[in-house]
Inverse folding.
């Protein structure tokens, strides 16, 4: 049985049990006639970094639930030296939900600590749980189930790699990550994934390795992400050199299970982490992933409001 969702924060995915996760994915597939209405509610959507998918999917999701979305940038919130505490104490007098995209993960944790309304992490340097929910929904739709699948992530051990580790732990998927030396996922994320898998006895196993071909061998899901995340723009050229050999191209996809799907949270850098041939192939489900952001986030908002 899933736990009660009202008022809960979504900061990493580790807050969910496997039953919670299944429930969110089930609610995400509910037809429009079953969506609740929260008319008269408002949500603050705060973006300290750029966004296309997250911003638009949250705005549309809010409208579908009767919630009025208020989109803010770095000039509006956390500006003018106002403390996080004071900013949140003001915002919670106006809005019923806070969605925040920011840099340090500790920022969203601090917001959640002060907020009396639910807080949703819309991406930090360490985690992207909304994308994690959308991706699990996408995998379930294409593969029928999550338990026992092998997900191979090739590229930077970043916020998305961390998110797949936690997602895999809850869903009973094995997660194999291939990165160049120095770009491994944080040890705390791997340890947390192992702890979750052990706590809920989901059977997931995790491996971090160098060789993309070995990681992808027999995989049901092949995933990559940008080599230079938001905030790392000045490292782009160095990273391009360091990630040579890590592009998901047709040869890499050829190692995966013949029915494997290709995923990318987008924005993609074609010719860098993925070839045109792969992202444009019939195995690519990247636009289903983008659509599922809307369904997963609407489901989460409808449960916590
Ligand atoms: N995948 C994702 O979060 O996209 P945006 O950065 O455009 O929101
Ligand atoms: N790792 C990327 C994901 C973008 C959705 C970033 O943080 O920029």
């Amino acid at each position: 049985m899933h736990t009660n969702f009202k008022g809960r924060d979504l900061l990493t995915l580790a807050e969910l049990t496997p039953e919670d996760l299944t429930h969110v994915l089930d609610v995400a597939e509910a037809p429009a006639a079953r969506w609740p209405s929260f008319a008269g509610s408002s949500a603050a959507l705060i973006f300290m970094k750029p966004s296309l998918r997250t911003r638009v999917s949250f705005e549309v999701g809010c409208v579908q639930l009767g919630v009025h979305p208020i989109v803010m940038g770095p000039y509006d919130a956390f500006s003018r030296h106002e403390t996080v505490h004071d900013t949140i104490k003001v915002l919670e007098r106006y809005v019923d939900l806070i969605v925040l995209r920011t840099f340090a993960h500790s920022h969203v944790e601090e917001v959640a600590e002060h907020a009396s309304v639910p807080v949703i992490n819309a991406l930090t340097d360490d985690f992207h749980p909304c994308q994690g929910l959308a991706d699990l929904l996408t995998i379930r739709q294409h593969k029928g189930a999550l338990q026992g699948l092998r997900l191979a992530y090739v590229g930077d051990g970043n916020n998305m790699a961390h998110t797949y580790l936690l997602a895999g732990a809850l869903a009973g998927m094995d997660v194999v990550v291939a990165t160049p030396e120095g770009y491994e996922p944080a040890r705390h994320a791997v340890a947390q994934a192992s702890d979750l898998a052990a706590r809920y006895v989901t059977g997931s196993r995790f491996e971090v390795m160098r060789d993309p071909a070995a990681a992808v061998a027999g995989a049901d899901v092949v995933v990559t992400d940008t080599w230079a995340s938001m905030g790392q723009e000045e490292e782009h050229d160095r990273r391009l050199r360091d990630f040579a050999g890590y592009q998901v191209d047709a040869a890499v996809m050829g190692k995966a299970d013949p029915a494997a799907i290709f995923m990318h949270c987008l924005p993609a850098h074609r010719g860098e982490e993925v070839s045109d041939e792969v992202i444009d192939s019939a195995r690519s489900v990247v636009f289903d992933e983008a659509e599922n952001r809307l369904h997963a986030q609407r489901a989460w908002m409808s449960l916590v409001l």
